[in-house]
Fold this sequence. Notes:
Structural class of chain B: mainly beta
Oligomer: heterodimer
Shape of chain A: globular
Number of strands of chain B: 11
Distance between the termini of chain B: 36 Å
Helix content of chain B: under 10%
Mean pLDDT of chain A: 94
Low-confidence stretches of chain B: none
Radius of gyration of chain B: 13 Å
Number of helices of chain B: 0
Radius of gyration of chain A: 13 Å
Number of strands of chain A: 11
Distance between the termini of chain A: 37 Å
Number of helices of chain A: 0
Order of helices and strands of chain B: EEEEEEEEEEE
Strand content of chain B: over 45%
Amino acid sequence: QKEVEQDPGPLSVPEGAIVSLNCTYSNSAFQYFMWYRQYSRKGPELLMYTYSSGNKEDGRFTAQVDKSSKYISLFIRDSQPSDSATYLCATRSGNTPLVFGKGTRLSVIA
Amino acid sequence: GAVVSQHPSWVICKSGTSVKIECRSLDFQATTMFWYRQFPKQSLMLMATSNEGSKATYEQGVEKDKFLINHASLTLSTLTVTSAHPEDSSFYICSSSPGGGPEQYFGPGTRLTVT
């Protein structure tokens, strides 16, 4: 079993929809959880960072971590065509390197 | 967020030559830098972890004599692809964490094409 599982999609939604992106992980030692957005031929951009379980909101983006079920979510409200990108979940414990999911390709159709 | 830059953004080289890619932290000191490669439509694959002033730690399967990493200062790490071959063509990305914290920031990436 991979340490972080993420459905690669692609996921296509109409503009204005609520998008739900998810990952599961297997290592209970993971304590830091991140979501990155990557546009084609660009480096990943850190969107959200959470520590341990809970919710975090930033504008149209909400990150959720449920450590009891080892489940990570990113919600995008009022999705825009400019949100079309690949979204990568990532996690780590302590100072260890990030462990990434495969990334979900999202298309928001105008 | 913190800013990481890379140079060049795109390089084409002939098979057998060497290419150097620079990674700089612009607004923080980077004790540790990570180097990744990414093939089209795939996730990032960690190649090595470099610590300022010491030898890099390479992931299993990554040839350290082919991918030379130098981290001589707190703001600069370099990756040199030696004797490049077409199969080395990929997207190379570096990252680092300000203050060694958990948040990791990535550079814009370098696209290497070996002909």
